[in-house]
Write a structure and sequence with these properties.
transmembrane helix, single chain, 58 residues, mainly alpha, 0% strand
Amino acid sequence: MAKKKNNLILIIPAFLLMGAAIGIQTKTVIKQTIVGLIVGIIVYFFLIYRNNRINKKS
């Protein structure tokens, strides 16, 4: 089987763009974009931690 590529880093720009889209709708683009960036970074590190725990058990 081919090794699965780890594309977790793509979560950060996805949350950044979602924050920007919400910011455009609510007229607070900068604030929502920063919140999206922070949430993306938090989710990224949480998933890295979770994957490391799952891989250690196997």
